[in-house]
Structures are given as structure tokens and as C-alpha cells.
Amino acid sequence: MPVLPYIQRQELPAKPGIYYIGNSSSPVMYVGLSRNLKSRHINHHRQGQFEGMENAVIRYRVVPEDFLATISDLTETLRKLEKQAIHHYKPPINDTPIPNQAKFTTVHGPTGASQFLLFFKIK
After folding, report:
1. Distance (Å, rounded) from C-alpha 64 to C-alpha 22?
2. What is the torsion angle, in degrees rounded to the nearest 10, for the CA atoms of residue 103, residue 114, residue 33 and residue 82?
3. What's the rounded Cα separation, in Å, for the pair 55 and 71?
4. For 42, phi and psi rounded to 5 degrees?
5. What are residue 18's DSSP bridge partners?
6. What would the mean pLDDT of 20-35 be, rounded to a whole number?
7. Given the DSSP bridges, would you call strands 57-62 and 30-34 parallel, antiparallel or unpaired?
8. What residues form DSSP beta bridges with 23?
9. Whole-prediction pTM
10. pLDDT per residue as tens digits for the range 35-78
11. 106 φ, ψ to 5°?
């Protein structure tokens, strides 16, 4: 599996795949998916966390071209692969709140994504 120091993430391929963020003491601290690995890591929502890790690296698996031709729903396939990897590795960062994430509120209080959003606050 290819590996890059996280600070060299701009060298990631612009291809779909699954990625793993970690370091030598904890090789898999986060698992994610992307339709374009390079653009995903230009402004990742957890970039600050990854940059704060000592000697952070990104490992990745690109979806092979021949396999891409057989997939009817790339996003769904990537989600399944990501879910399997998260279940297997149990990466600790995946289970933490996203830093500086917007908080959504309705007139009835906090809401889930399935409800109509009336207002939002950033905390």
C-alpha cells in the first residue's frame, strides 16, 4: 500500500480510494473515503488533527481502473469499503466529534440531518 508523509498529501493521486491516517506507533487512527484522494486532502475537515499528529502518514488504496468499470455506484462501493475498514481497525479519530463543525438547530432544538433545518450556529 502506498504511503506518504501527511505534509506531502498534495502528491496523492486524483483518483477514488480509501485512505488511512496514522503514524508509526498507531498506523490506523482514521479511515476515510474519497472520489478524489488529492482534492479531499487539500482542505480536509480534520486536517488540523492530522497535522497535529507526530510523524503523520497517509496510506491509501486507489480503486483499480478495471474494478471501476464494473461498479454501478462508486460512492456506495467506497462507503462499504470504508465501513469494513473502520470495523476492522476501529480507528479512534473516526469516533470523535469533528472540530469546529457547524451545529444545526430547528425551532424545536438540535436536529438530525433528516429534519428540515431552519437555523444553524457555529460554535
Report:
1. 23
2. 120
3. 35
4. -70, -40
5. 33, 61
6. 96
7. unpaired
8. none
9. 0.78
10. 999 999 988 999 999 999 999 999 999 999 998 889 899 999 99
11. -110, 180
Ramachandran sector of residue 100 (left: φ over 0; alpha: ψ -120 to 50; beta: rest): left
Taking the CA atoms of the chain, what radius of gyration do you get in angstroms?
16
Could you give the CA distance from residue 21 to residue 91 in angstroms, rounded to a whole number?
9
Which amino acid appears at position 85 of this protein?
A
Contact in structure between 50 and 21 (CB atoms under 8 Å): yes
Please list the residues that pair with 32 across neighbouring strands: 19
> What residue type is 118 in one-letter code?
L
SS3 track for the chain: CCEEEHHHHHHCCCCCEEEEEECCCCCCCEEEEECCHHHHCCCCCCHHHHHHCCCCEEEEEECCHHHHCCCCCHHHHHHHHHHHHHHHHCCHHHHCCCCCCEEEEECCEECCCCCCCCEEEEC
Which of 23-27, 96-100, 107-111 shows the lowest per-residue confidence on average (mean pLDDT)? Answer: 107-111
